[in-house]
Amino acid sequence: MTFSPITHLRHVDIAVPDFAKQVDFYGGRWGLTATETESGLTYFAAEGSPEQYIVRVRDDVDKRLDLIAFGVTDAKAVDALASSLIAGGVTLISEPGALNTPGGGYGFRFFDGDGRVVEASADVAVRKHRKIEVRESIPVRLSHVVLNSPQPEKTVAWYEKHLGFRLSDTLDHPHLGGLMYFLRCGPQHHSMAVSRCPHTSLNHISFEMRGLDEYMFATGRLMRAEIPKIWGPGRHAAGDNTFSYFRDPNGNIMEYTTELLQLDEDTWHPSIYDTADPETSDQWGTSNPMDEWVSSQMFNDADKGLYTAPPV
């Protein structure tokens, strides 16, 4: 696909076995706002984002990534994308139509090449939001999502072919080769990335903060609350963004970030970063090293929901 109708990442939906703790974590610790709650289902918004919600949590016996939702330019583009996917042999879970999630809109769901559920939508109502104030240590919006795949090159090729994502940069391991691939659907350096892993799973979800001060206040707030810190604080080379990774109550990894690179589509050329260089992981040199333990935390549990649509 030479042109991508995808505009941005809307929300990431997860299912967890310890629903109450996850809801308390997002609302009580992470800084999100619960907007709607049903039986075993809670939607969380970011105060600075026009999206109706950026994370949905569902109660289930199994932990899984329910779906990743992307915005599309308009309803016509939604229909065109559905037709393109069908022609490309992609399995649709639902036909384009009215959505019954908060904010409504028009969209459909389908399986990606690894069996994850993806939603594409347009015309979702804008949520009333506000400017995040100086030193307010809560997320402004959803930044990006990183996926684990045992065949990352194949996963990247699928998203390039069917959804029009473009490669921004690559992390290269001296022995493993391509370790992480950063993909964009607009000027933001990456809205999604794919990481090499023994199994298909969620690597992490990232949330954008107002600025460096707010990012550090949030990092310190969680550290003082003894939320398990996995990696950071530091600043990556690829994307030039800050990072602090924490483990949530169900073993998923969540990231605070800020200052993710905005690039010029006409002049940008992808780079390959060597992971043997410590500045690739952390330019500042302030974080704990990226080692086998950190990697194992990022691997997460193998996703049990592949090629299975969530009930809602």
Molecular structure report:
Residues 8-123, 141-259 form the VOC domain. It comes from Rhodococcoides trifolii. Pfam families: Glyoxalase. InterPro entries: Glyas_Bleomycin-R_OHBP_Dase, Glyas_Fos-R_dOase_dom, GlyoxalaseI/FosfomycinResist, VOC_core. This protein is of the alpha/beta class and 312 residues long. The chain has 2 domains: 6-122, Roll (2,3-Dihydroxybiphenyl 1,2-Dioxygenase, domain 1); 141-299, 2,3-Dihydroxybiphenyl 1,2-Dioxygenase, domain 1, CATH 3.10.180. 20% of the residues lie in helices and 35% in strands. The protein is built from 6 helices and 17 strands. The strands form 2 sheets. A 9-stranded mixed β-sheet has the order 14-15-16-13-9-12-11-10-17. An 8-stranded mixed β-sheet has the order 2-3-4-1-5-8-7-6, with helices on one face. The protein starts with 5 loop residues before the first strand and ends in a 13-residue tail after the last helix. The mean pLDDT is 97.
